[in-house]
Amino acid sequence: MSQVFPYPSQIVVTCFPKQSPWLAQEIEALGFKVESQGITEVEVNGFMDDCLKLNMFLRTAGRVLFQIKRFRAVNADELYKELSKIPWEDYFDIDDYFSITSYVRNDTITDDRFANLRAKDAIADRFVKKTGKRPDSGSDRDGTVIHLYWRDEKVRVYFDTSGETIAKHGYRKIPGKAPMIESLAASAIIASNWDKKSTFVNPMCGSGTLAIEAALIATNTAPGLFRENFGFMHINGYSEESWQGYIRLAQLQQKKQLDFRIIASDINGGAITSAKMNARTAGVYHLIDFQVCDFRETEIPEETGVVMFNPEYGERLGADKDLEEIYSAIGDFFKQQCKGYMGYVFTGNLDLAKTIGLRAKRRVEFYNAKIDSRLLEYELYAGTRRES
Length: 388
What we know:
With 388 residues, the protein is α/β, with parallel strands linked by helices. The protein starts with 8 loop residues before the first strand and ends in a 9-residue tail after the last strand. The chain is elongated. The protein has helices at 20-29, 48-57, 76-84, 88-91, 112-131, 182-191, 209-218, 240-253, 269-282, 320-337, 350-353, and strands spanning 9-14, 36-37, 41-46, 63-72, 97-105, 136-138, 144-151, 154-160, 199-202, 262-266, 288-292, 305-309, 342-347, 362-368, 371-379. The protein has 11 helices and 15 strands. The chain folds into 2 domains: 9-160, VC0802-like (2-Layer Sandwich), CATH 3.30.2130.30; 182-221 and 256-380, Vaccinia Virus protein VP39 (Rossmann fold, 3-Layer(aba) Sandwich).
């Protein structure tokens, strides 16, 4: 892509806490070797052009960071001095807009905003010295985005090639009540080991994120197809031809039809209206059967597959005692109507989960925002299914 960065560098792909196993799985499937993995990131080595590929195809990621430089800085003055040595005028245009994001854990810094300001000043002052002009800067992430990682004396400087987070996949125009972010929904589906060729049922679907992500995964629709602006587009040397190549590749890999059913239901007609609109934006409306009904009346086809719930947790949406009956009813629904399926409940309330009344075969750790959550897996043994 770029003669500005003709060399490989460290690429850090971030995610929400506990999603890194599924992110690493995705990255390896794209042909990359994972160098290291933490709770909120996966590291690989690659070229700037690889960042285009990662931004196009990753479902579970938040940001794709390409390392520009690493150095040591004890305090803000040393940070300013080292950042001033970087040839920023070669990396992005004086007429472009830039912003700084940061992670700062340094004893001399009591406010991250001060570190950001010093970084911004170093870059702007370098431009003034080299070109006589000062670039515009601010907090929006729709131009060149520079990420500063500063822990103790260790500093890493990156281009955020995503710009705005890619954890949001761009189709959800109506989010609904307490929605699950798209990258988390994709992670939960990948964690379920759903085979992408059997029935997927999402009762209590809300704004439809789980069902839509299932359809996008099954059709191999790349999340990057929904976005028109990325951080890498504002870095000198960006190749529109290279990006168009990834768009064509993504379109060639995309399926248009499925030979199994995806079903999404909700008792709230307004939620289903929102879900339908989001599904239309995502291009998968024709692949999902939407039903307005109590979850207990959701159609469960005779074939096998996955039934996945993301019920209310209680922390944000009402008293726990009001939800105990719902969780208990989910257990009954699993036992009576979902035999032969794999059942999943994503919840941030493990006390409520106990009222489901089934023993979980597996408990996968996640975080939803700051809520410690679990994807609970239930094997629903086949037998004669009782009519609801």
